[in-house]
Design goal:
One of its GO terms (molecular function) is phosphorelay sensor kinase activity. InterPro entries: HATPase_C_sf (IPR036890), HATPase_dom (IPR003594), His_kinase_dom (IPR005467), MASE3 (IPR033425), PAC (IPR001610), PAS (IPR000014), PAS-assoc_C (IPR000700), PAS-like_dom_sf (IPR035965). Keywords: Kinase, Membrane, Transferase, Transmembrane, Transmembrane helix. The chain has 21 helices and 14 strands. It is an alpha+beta fold. The protein has four domains: 32 residues; 235 residues, Rhopdopsin 7-helix transmembrane proteins, CATH 1.20.1070; 113 residues, PAS domain (Beta-Lactamase); 187 residues, Heat Shock Protein 90. The strands form four sheets. Strands 4-3-7-6-5 form a five-stranded antiparallel sheet, with helices on both faces. Strand 13 and strand 14 form a beta hairpin. It is flat.
Length: 674
Amino acid sequence: MYHIGGNTFKVKLHEAAVWIAIIGLLYLISLGNYLLFHTLVELFSVYVAYVIFLIVWKSRECLENRYLILVGIAFFFIGSVDLLHALTFSGMGVFRVPGINLTIQLWVLARYLEGISFLVAPLFLIRNRESGSKEAENMYGESLEDSVFAWKVFLVYAVITISCLFSVFFFNNFPAAYIEGSGLTPFKILSEYMVSFILLCSLLLLYITRDGFETKVFRLLAASIILTIFGELSFALYTHVDELPNLIGHYFKLLSFYLIYEAVVDVGFEEPCSLLFRELKHREEDFRQKAIFLGDEYSHICRMIGVNRSLEPNNKSFGDDENQEGSHSFLQHFPGIGFQLDEVFSPVSMQGPVEKMTGYRKEDLLSEKVSLMELIVPEDQHLIIENQQKLKSNPKFVAENEFRIRKKNGELIWVREITRSIQGSSEGSGKFQGLVYDITERKVAEEALEKIDRIRIKEIHHRIKNNLQVISSLLSLQAEKFEDREVIEAFRESQNRVASIAMIHEELHGGENLDSLDFADYLQKLTADLFDSYRVGKEGVSLKLDLENVYLGMDTAIPLGIIVNELVSNSLKHAFSDKNEGEISINLHSNDASHSLVELSCSEPEFLENDDFHYTLTVADNGRGIPEKMDFRNTDSLGLQLITILVEQIGGCIELNRDYGTEFVINFGNSEKL
């Protein structure tokens, strides 16, 4: 079972299996058992090919590199043909065909599939990169597109492979590769050279597209292709299966398959973010460059607004002739609209690509046949109205708005408007002037950057959760080596603590909000797991939850989750040791008007005046209770020590009520709440 971001030790197990197999094959060679050697090499190559396919297929929706997708799928069919090739060996008893022509035909077919796959794969990588730079707004449909691409590739390979197999097995029109008494045919020998040439071309294309890979992945792929070329040349030189070139060729093939395995699997486990988000990083850099360009353009616009007094080229209020000429030249080349408005914000003059930006003629807007406000989507109109009031009340105010307008054809675009008052304007002239230009591309880039960050953060949470689950599994395995009950219990407690943290990252990975957690929902899942873990022999203990929907930041949620884990597990272990029934209750609420801060139970002087305690968490049970003489703040119990330390860490306070069983009341704030 493979899981990107976790279970790395399983990958190392496969790596060890590879080298053990190679050593075993060397031993068989020393015994002179060439047939068994060839069979084991082929079967092991098939195994590696299928592993490559499984990893790529499982990660096809998040693996943006289409080179790896195509190659991974191709190896399924290459491995399948190689499997048939191995089954045709004499002594296998699967295909009762005289001679070895069928065996070599299948070998040639598999090598052509491999060579052509390496040649075609870079072309899809180039195409994917070019199409990705055209429209940034479409990039988040690509996970679905990549999945569809994978299915298309699979079906194409299935049709081609099945057609070729029919040609070999049923139609008998596949060129002969071996003739009894004559040996290898020219077709077979030329095919080896042809496949080598195809692989050489694929190596050149791989080098051209090398920036689409991490350095380690590129080197592994290149080394695999080079070894495959050497292997094909070796197979072109032998005349009998027991000769040295055939032996060397099989070793080259085995090593080339293993390098592909390393590139796709090992690097995918050890460096998943680098592998999965290579294309995202390139796009992010492209978007940032566009943002820098737009920022420079915006600065230029602001400077022009500060200089110009009028947008009419024949109006001398511009200043001197040099400013007038510069302004007119700027507006001719500026991809936006310059305008003047009167005291009621009706257009007086407009200059620039009005019809191109809005779909309406300039005359229609100046005559107010079409109102400027009608172009703005209703949800954004309040921004314009608010800034118009500020412009009227403050002559020095510069209004800057970003809003959406609907063009005549119904298309929505984002625009940025900068408007200011015209100082000393004469009667009948404009009172306000400004510029408006299209920022749709920038908005799409900003949205794409935000989505990239969300994907990256989700992947980080996913990786942390996986790593914590590995730690939890290792603790469980380690505990099995001990028989001491206290040691086993200590391992289980540590395992539950790690699991409580892993659950938070799992919730953040799966939720919409990446910065805060629905703590009530989290408590329900956490307590359910704890009851499953400790409830043996305590079936009569029930759980009562009274939880308000509270969203907490991760720095608060993780310590608080461990605190609840400790309190509930302590109750399940100790509170009902003398009886088989009882109740554990958890209450979580915000300290609003119905829960006044005056009611807070903290007795420490520094907390009495604290108004930052927005939430109260109560964990109680009606069990035997904690002895009066025991100070839970000063005890040898690791669990209670953790509780005290973690409450201090989140800046909260904790009180113990022993009146009816045990009741811990924790008051805390949440500085990270959104």
